[in-house]
Amino acid sequence: MSEVATSTRERILDVCLRLFNESGPAAVTTAEIARTAGINEGNLYYYFKKKEDILEALFEVFEAALNEVANAPQDAGGGSEAGLAYLQRWFRLMWAWRFFYRDGAAIKRTAPGLRARTVKLADRGQADIKRALKQMVESGLLAATDEELERLVVNAWIISSYWLDYLDTRHNIGRVNRDHLEWGFAQVLSLFLPYTRPGMSAASPVSRRKSPPGQ
């Protein structure tokens, strides 16, 4: 495939990721995708015959991003800063690809071939996060049972997946910036603070984010 074709294909995928995150794959039409990507709809079909093909291509990119986060070296002796950095990388990943977590039912209808793969990858992601949290328990940064860790992971997943919707419906924030992302991570981290050992909360950004950015 030529460099121009590769560039156009990547632009289409970038556009689809943004539109799917904003509205969900079921609500986004191929006409909207083509218009936003700056191409005609016929040209879109040259790269992707149907929306299912787009979802499968996006999933490949998502899977690679998840593997990169999951396989990043973890410094078990790095203290609270290392633990927070690892959790933040997961939050950013979940937030960047939130439609895969949020719109599972629509994805299964549109791309049934991804049904088993999305479940497997989500399970793997949650297992990796739980493993990291258990390491924090073993290193004395957290004091939580396995049952408590399970609830923490699920609640963090919910906040991460729906954070943009919250910003839009509660605060009417249309364009999200880095401050909004950090604010979201602070909300996720606040779930863990009741289980932290001394020293963990001091490194937390929660104390620095009391209200929405700009307020």
Summarize the structure.
This protein has helices at 3-23, 30-37, 41-47, 51-70, 79-96, 98-102, 104-110, 115-138, 146-171, 178-192. It is mostly helical and 215 residues long.
CATH class of the largest domain: Mainly Alpha
Alpha-carbon Rg, integer: 19 Å
Helix and strand string, N-terminal first?
A: HHHHHHHHHH
Number of helices: 10
Query: β content, as a range?
Result: under 5%
Helix content: over 70%
Multimer state: single chain
CATH architecture annotation of the largest domain: Orthogonal Bundle
Low-confidence stretches: 201-210
Tell me about the biggest sheet? none
The secondary-structure class comes to mainly alpha
- Name of the CATH homologous superfamily of the largest domain: Tetracycline Repressor, domain 2
At the fold tier of CATH, the topology name of the largest domain is Tetracycline Repressor, domain 2
Spatial separation of the terminal alpha carbons: 49 Å
